[in-house]
Amino acid sequence: MSGLAAFVILSVGTLLEALVVVCAVRRKLFRRYFFLNLYMILCAFASLGRWQVLKQEGLKSLSYRYFYFYSDAVLTIALFFGLISLYMFVFEEMKLERYFRLGAVVLLAGTCWFSYAVVSQSSHKMLTYFAFELSQNLYFVGLVLTYVLWAAILKLRETRTLLVQLVLSLGVFFGASAATYSVSNLHPTLFSYVHNLMPIMGCLLPLSWAYAFWRVPDDARLTPARLAVVPR
Which pTM was predicted? Predict the structure, then answer.
Protein backbone atom coordinates (compact mmCIF):
# COMPACT_ATOMS: atom_id res chain seq x y z
CA MET A 1 0.00 0.00 0.00
CA SER A 2 1.36 3.38 -0.96
CA GLY A 3 1.56 6.33 1.39
CA LEU A 4 -1.22 8.07 -0.57
CA ALA A 5 -3.53 5.06 -0.25
CA ALA A 6 -2.82 4.84 3.48
CA PHE A 7 -3.59 8.55 3.84
CA VAL A 8 -6.90 8.17 1.97
CA ILE A 9 -7.94 5.19 4.10
CA LEU A 10 -7.03 7.01 7.31
CA SER A 11 -9.01 10.06 6.17
CA VAL A 12 -12.07 7.99 5.28
CA GLY A 13 -11.85 6.11 8.57
CA THR A 14 -11.60 9.33 10.57
CA LEU A 15 -14.64 10.80 8.82
CA LEU A 16 -16.66 7.64 9.45
CA GLU A 17 -15.64 7.56 13.11
CA ALA A 18 -16.72 11.17 13.52
CA LEU A 19 -19.96 10.36 11.69
CA VAL A 20 -20.80 7.65 14.23
CA VAL A 21 -20.57 10.17 17.08
CA VAL A 22 -22.56 12.77 15.13
CA CYS A 23 -25.32 10.25 14.38
CA ALA A 24 -25.42 9.13 18.02
CA VAL A 25 -25.68 12.73 19.24
CA ARG A 26 -28.35 13.52 16.67
CA ARG A 27 -30.42 10.52 17.76
CA LYS A 28 -29.74 11.27 21.45
CA LEU A 29 -27.98 7.92 21.86
CA PHE A 30 -24.55 9.22 22.86
CA ARG A 31 -24.98 8.66 26.60
CA ARG A 32 -26.77 5.35 26.19
CA TYR A 33 -23.94 3.94 24.06
CA PHE A 34 -21.23 6.00 25.73
CA PHE A 35 -18.42 3.42 25.56
CA LEU A 36 -19.02 2.73 21.88
CA ASN A 37 -18.90 6.45 21.15
CA LEU A 38 -15.83 6.87 23.35
CA TYR A 39 -14.12 4.18 21.31
CA MET A 40 -14.97 6.03 18.09
CA ILE A 41 -13.65 9.32 19.49
CA LEU A 42 -10.39 7.62 20.50
CA CYS A 43 -10.20 6.04 17.04
CA ALA A 44 -10.49 9.48 15.44
CA PHE A 45 -7.65 10.87 17.58
CA ALA A 46 -5.53 7.78 16.89
CA SER A 47 -6.13 8.20 13.16
CA LEU A 48 -4.99 11.83 13.35
CA GLY A 49 -1.87 10.74 15.23
CA ARG A 50 -1.14 8.02 12.69
CA TRP A 51 -1.56 10.54 9.89
CA GLN A 52 1.03 12.83 11.51
CA VAL A 53 3.53 10.00 11.90
CA LEU A 54 2.78 8.77 8.39
CA LYS A 55 3.36 12.26 7.00
CA GLN A 56 6.65 12.77 8.86
CA GLU A 57 8.18 9.28 8.89
CA GLY A 58 6.53 7.35 6.06
CA LEU A 59 4.46 4.18 5.88
CA LYS A 60 7.39 1.76 6.18
CA SER A 61 9.07 3.52 9.10
CA LEU A 62 9.48 1.87 12.48
CA SER A 63 7.94 4.94 14.11
CA TYR A 64 4.69 4.43 12.23
CA ARG A 65 4.62 0.73 13.09
CA TYR A 66 5.31 1.38 16.78
CA PHE A 67 2.69 4.13 16.98
CA TYR A 68 0.18 1.94 15.17
CA PHE A 69 0.51 -0.98 17.59
CA TYR A 70 0.67 1.18 20.72
CA SER A 71 -2.50 3.03 19.71
CA ASP A 72 -4.16 -0.20 18.58
CA ALA A 73 -3.61 -1.71 22.03
CA VAL A 74 -5.32 1.28 23.68
CA LEU A 75 -8.19 1.17 21.19
CA THR A 76 -8.68 -2.55 21.69
CA ILE A 77 -9.00 -2.05 25.44
CA ALA A 78 -11.59 0.68 24.84
CA LEU A 79 -13.51 -1.58 22.45
CA PHE A 80 -13.37 -4.38 25.02
CA PHE A 81 -15.23 -2.19 27.50
CA GLY A 82 -17.63 -1.20 24.73
CA LEU A 83 -18.42 -4.88 24.27
CA ILE A 84 -19.00 -5.29 28.01
CA SER A 85 -21.46 -2.39 27.88
CA LEU A 86 -23.46 -4.34 25.28
CA TYR A 87 -23.57 -7.26 27.72
CA MET A 88 -25.18 -4.90 30.24
CA PHE A 89 -27.88 -3.97 27.73
CA VAL A 90 -28.72 -7.59 27.00
CA PHE A 91 -28.80 -8.57 30.68
CA GLU A 92 -30.07 -5.25 32.07
CA GLU A 93 -33.26 -6.79 33.47
CA MET A 94 -31.20 -9.19 35.58
CA LYS A 95 -29.31 -6.40 37.38
CA LEU A 96 -25.88 -7.92 36.77
CA GLU A 97 -23.96 -4.72 36.02
CA ARG A 98 -21.67 -5.02 39.05
CA TYR A 99 -20.66 -8.57 38.14
CA PHE A 100 -20.01 -7.68 34.51
CA ARG A 101 -17.77 -4.77 35.53
CA LEU A 102 -15.82 -6.97 37.93
CA GLY A 103 -15.57 -9.75 35.37
CA ALA A 104 -14.36 -7.31 32.72
CA VAL A 105 -11.58 -5.99 34.96
CA VAL A 106 -10.50 -9.51 35.94
CA LEU A 107 -10.56 -10.72 32.33
CA LEU A 108 -8.63 -7.69 31.10
CA ALA A 109 -6.04 -8.08 33.86
CA GLY A 110 -5.70 -11.78 33.04
CA THR A 111 -5.22 -11.03 29.35
CA CYS A 112 -2.57 -8.42 30.16
CA TRP A 113 -0.75 -10.86 32.43
CA PHE A 114 -0.85 -13.60 29.80
CA SER A 115 0.43 -11.20 27.13
CA TYR A 116 3.26 -10.10 29.42
CA ALA A 117 4.15 -13.72 30.18
CA VAL A 118 4.40 -14.50 26.46
CA VAL A 119 6.81 -11.64 25.72
CA SER A 120 8.71 -11.59 29.02
CA GLN A 121 11.58 -13.58 27.52
CA SER A 122 12.22 -10.93 24.87
CA SER A 123 14.65 -8.12 25.59
CA HIS A 124 14.30 -6.23 22.31
CA LYS A 125 11.50 -3.65 22.09
CA MET A 126 9.55 -5.54 24.71
CA LEU A 127 6.92 -2.81 25.01
CA THR A 128 6.18 -3.07 21.29
CA TYR A 129 5.86 -6.85 21.46
CA PHE A 130 3.60 -6.51 24.49
CA ALA A 131 1.33 -4.06 22.64
CA PHE A 132 1.16 -6.43 19.66
CA GLU A 133 0.49 -9.48 21.84
CA LEU A 134 -2.09 -7.67 23.97
CA SER A 135 -4.04 -6.49 20.92
CA GLN A 136 -3.93 -9.95 19.40
CA ASN A 137 -5.15 -11.63 22.59
CA LEU A 138 -7.88 -9.05 23.21
CA TYR A 139 -9.18 -9.47 19.67
CA PHE A 140 -9.45 -13.21 20.30
CA VAL A 141 -11.10 -12.69 23.70
CA GLY A 142 -13.45 -10.14 22.15
CA LEU A 143 -14.37 -12.59 19.39
CA VAL A 144 -15.24 -15.29 21.92
CA LEU A 145 -17.20 -12.88 24.13
CA THR A 146 -19.11 -11.51 21.13
CA TYR A 147 -20.27 -14.96 20.08
CA VAL A 148 -21.18 -15.80 23.67
CA LEU A 149 -23.22 -12.59 23.68
CA TRP A 150 -24.85 -13.58 20.41
CA ALA A 151 -25.78 -16.95 21.89
CA ALA A 152 -27.34 -15.10 24.84
CA ILE A 153 -29.28 -12.87 22.43
CA LEU A 154 -30.71 -15.94 20.73
CA LYS A 155 -31.43 -17.67 24.04
CA LEU A 156 -33.14 -14.62 25.57
CA ARG A 157 -34.85 -13.75 22.27
CA GLU A 158 -33.50 -10.21 22.35
CA THR A 159 -35.29 -8.38 19.53
CA ARG A 160 -33.96 -4.80 19.69
CA THR A 161 -32.80 -4.23 16.12
CA LEU A 162 -30.19 -1.60 16.91
CA LEU A 163 -28.57 -3.72 19.62
CA VAL A 164 -28.54 -6.79 17.38
CA GLN A 165 -26.88 -4.89 14.53
CA LEU A 166 -24.24 -3.42 16.83
CA VAL A 167 -23.36 -6.88 18.17
CA LEU A 168 -23.27 -8.51 14.74
CA SER A 169 -20.98 -5.85 13.25
CA LEU A 170 -18.72 -6.10 16.28
CA GLY A 171 -18.51 -9.88 15.84
CA VAL A 172 -17.45 -9.47 12.21
CA PHE A 173 -14.82 -6.89 13.17
CA PHE A 174 -13.35 -9.01 15.98
CA GLY A 175 -13.35 -12.08 13.77
CA ALA A 176 -11.57 -10.34 10.89
CA SER A 177 -9.03 -8.71 13.23
CA ALA A 178 -8.27 -11.96 15.08
CA ALA A 179 -7.84 -13.76 11.75
CA THR A 180 -5.47 -11.05 10.53
CA TYR A 181 -3.22 -11.39 13.58
CA SER A 182 -3.32 -15.19 13.33
CA VAL A 183 -2.22 -15.14 9.69
CA SER A 184 0.63 -12.75 10.47
CA ASN A 185 1.81 -15.13 13.22
CA LEU A 186 1.54 -18.29 11.13
CA HIS A 187 3.11 -16.70 8.06
CA PRO A 188 5.41 -13.82 9.12
CA THR A 189 6.36 -13.24 5.47
CA LEU A 190 2.77 -12.13 4.87
CA PHE A 191 2.85 -9.59 7.70
CA SER A 192 3.23 -6.53 5.50
CA TYR A 193 0.34 -7.61 3.26
CA VAL A 194 -1.92 -8.53 6.16
CA HIS A 195 -1.03 -5.35 8.03
CA ASN A 196 -2.36 -3.34 5.09
CA LEU A 197 -5.80 -4.87 5.60
CA MET A 198 -6.22 -3.59 9.16
CA PRO A 199 -6.91 0.09 8.25
CA ILE A 200 -9.40 -1.07 5.60
CA MET A 201 -11.25 -3.28 8.07
CA GLY A 202 -11.13 -0.40 10.53
CA CYS A 203 -13.38 1.57 8.17
CA LEU A 204 -16.08 -1.10 8.08
CA LEU A 205 -17.00 -1.00 11.77
CA PRO A 206 -17.71 2.77 11.94
CA LEU A 207 -19.56 2.51 8.62
CA SER A 208 -21.91 -0.16 10.01
CA TRP A 209 -22.37 1.68 13.32
CA ALA A 210 -23.03 4.99 11.59
CA TYR A 211 -25.69 3.32 9.46
CA ALA A 212 -27.24 1.68 12.54
CA PHE A 213 -27.36 4.93 14.52
CA TRP A 214 -28.65 6.89 11.54
CA ARG A 215 -31.26 4.53 10.10
CA VAL A 216 -32.38 2.11 12.80
CA PRO A 217 -34.92 3.46 15.32
CA ASP A 218 -34.02 2.82 18.94
CA ASP A 219 -37.39 1.15 19.55
CA ALA A 220 -37.34 -1.01 16.40
CA ARG A 221 -37.84 -4.73 17.01
CA LEU A 222 -37.02 -7.88 15.07
CA THR A 223 -39.32 -10.85 14.95
CA PRO A 224 -37.72 -13.73 16.91
CA ALA A 225 -37.79 -15.98 13.85
CA ARG A 226 -35.34 -13.68 12.05
CA LEU A 227 -32.66 -14.02 14.71
CA ALA A 228 -31.79 -17.59 13.85
CA VAL A 229 -32.37 -20.01 11.05
CA VAL A 230 -33.66 -23.33 12.31
CA PRO A 231 -32.75 -26.23 10.02
CA ARG A 232 -35.68 -28.29 8.81
Answer: 0.85
